[in-house]
Amino acid sequence: MQVQVRYFAAAKAATGVAEETRSIGDEHTIGALLDELGEDPRAVFARCSFILNEVSTTDRDIVLRDGDRLDVLPPFAGG
Question: What's the pTM?
């Protein structure tokens, strides 16, 4: 299964990429996907919210499905 992941702002800086397609297994959660990216971006991801298939969430226990699109959004300042 594959999931499209887009990173914004500090999440993009932490991963070094703006977008990628990740292969995942069955019952793979948002949290598991983020854990696979390693220690360096983990501090940034701890403050992130997500948009999964155009629906906002902060729940890292959501199981991802083939073809999902996940946007990783750190907190934004300004107005």
Answer: 0.88
